[in-house]
Design goal:
heterodimer, A: globular, B: mainly alpha, globular
């Protein structure tokens, strides 16, 4: 879907990170590679430190903490909220939706729209697009877009392809209607025929949890994991990202009537350092315009990585301009692609806070 | 160049014999993380840029395939 919206704005963004930090060097022995090889991969892939939630912490816990912080800072009140949209692949429960849990906690109006969207890597692009669509019916009410994941609990402890890069985070964006706002361009694409390239096989109806699904076995890729663990066909996903993302972005830029040179910064999903470097080369985008350090700092937190990147780099991005032409680009589970081009003025509030574990 | 590439592969996977294999990837001698390491080494050693579209298993299946890849981008 290639479309545009008018008179909408992202007014505030907050990132909530686990305080708990795991260092790759402390886990290197889990992976069965030589130290030389692991240190080389550390440099190439961006293995460094990642933030990991504690057991039984859920997306709603972090979202509630972040939303309370926004309320304490007088950024938003419960009465202003017309919709809560959660994009995540790690819901608190199968039922009820995480958005309902958040709504119930704050006693938000029963007229509030609550939507959970099962989407990972493209969670921010998809979630923003749904936010803009929902705002068409909300008048002066606002959308709280919660994008976050707790995937570290779903990855095998010896999976050297995925464990070293995954982290947890939850972000909250306040999205609202604004008179005389500039046009926002959105492009969402899906290639479901490749969907099983990123999968957690067990836990749903197709493969219920059992004694057998707990058992870890050696996969064809040489990694140990169980059907309850995250799995990604690295080659297929890499080729999808490198080949399809530029095509989607070219289509989006054509719709927005902009060129790469017109974009102040590309804020992309952060899968790993190597993939993003190769994407920048393919797009011929200067690496200075495409931040690529979130995996090293916090890990790949799936649907949260774009707002995490925005929060991390906010001060330097807005050092010289009050309004930036930004391109958000995401790619991954589904397999899906999501792109957004918008002129984003300085935010009312932008911050990163740590969740206080019990 | 051939000797340098074999040296690079052996350093990565000392347990494998890269002089005997027909297809390094099909035979499970190289996985996707190895390919990433090889790309990085190629770029550092020969000063070339390996585009993402050429990071395909068939371009790393043999020493000759890797040599062809390097020469393509010199």
């Amino acid at each position: 879907m290639l479309t545009s919206f008018k008179n909408k704005i992202i007014s505030s963004v907050i990132t909530v990170l686990p305080t708990n930090e795991v260092d790759f060097l402390d886990e290197m022995d889990n992976y069965g590679y030589s130290e030389v090889k692991m240190k080389k991969l550390k440099k190439i892939m961006g293995y460094n430190t990642r933030r990991v939630a504690m057991p039984k912490e859920g997306v709603s816990d972090y979202a509630i903490y972040g939303i309370q912080h926004l309320m304490d800072q007088k950024i938003i009140t419960a009465d202003e909220i017309g919709a809560i949209i959660v994009t995540s692949t790690s819901p608190d429960y199968f039922i009820p939706p995480t958005s309902n849990i958040i709504q119930g906690h704050f006693g938000i109006s029963h007229d509030c729209v609550c939507i959970d969207i099962s989407q990972g890597c493209c969670g921010y692009s998809v979630g923003l697009t749904y936010s803009f669509m929902t705002l068409e019916h909300l008048a002066d009410k606002k959308v709280l877009l919660v994008c976050g994941d707790m995937m570290t609990a779903k990855v095998g402890p010896h999976d050297r392809a995925s464990r070293p890069i995954l982290g947890d985070a939850v972000t909250i964006s306040v999205v609202e209607n604004q008179e005389n706002g500039r046009e926002i361009f959105c492009d969402i694409k899906n290639e479901g025929e490749k969907g099983m390239a990123i999968v957690i096989p067990a836990g749903g109806n197709k493969m219920p949890i059992s004694e057998e699904t707990h058992i870890e076995t050696m996969g064809e890729d040489g990694n140990m994991r169980s059907p309850e663990h995250f799995f990604m066909e690295g080659d297929e996903v890499f080729n999808f990202v490198i080949n399809e993302t530029p095509l989607m972005l070219l289509e989006l830029m054509d719709k927005a009537d902009v060129s790469i040179a017109d974009i102040d910064a590309f804020i992309c999903h952060q899968p790993n350092k190597f993939m993003l470097k190769k994407l920048a080369e393919k797009l011929e985008v200067d690496t200075g315009k495409m931040p690529n350090d979130i995996v090293e700092l916090y890990g790949n937190s799936n649907s949260a990585t774009i707002p995490v990147t925005l929060c991390q780099h906010y001060n330097e991005l807005y050092a010289e301009k009050d309004c930036l032409k930004l391109c958000f680009a995401s790619f991954g589970s589904g397999l899906a692609l999501g792109g957004i081009i918008l002129s984003l003025p300085k935010l009312q509030y932008c911050n990163m806070i740590n969740y206080p574990h019990a | 160049m051939k000797e340098k590439i074999i040296e690079m592969l052996t350093e990565l996977r000392p347990e494998c014999d890269f002089t005997e294999s027909v297809d390094f990837v099909e035979e499970g001698m190289l996985d996707s993380l190895d390919i990433v390491s090889i790309v990085d080494s190629i770029e550092e050693t020969w000063g070339v840029k390996v585009p993402g579209v050429d990071i395909l298993p068939e371009n790393f299946s043999s020493v000759d395939a890797i040599i062809n890849l390097i020469n393509k981008h010199k």
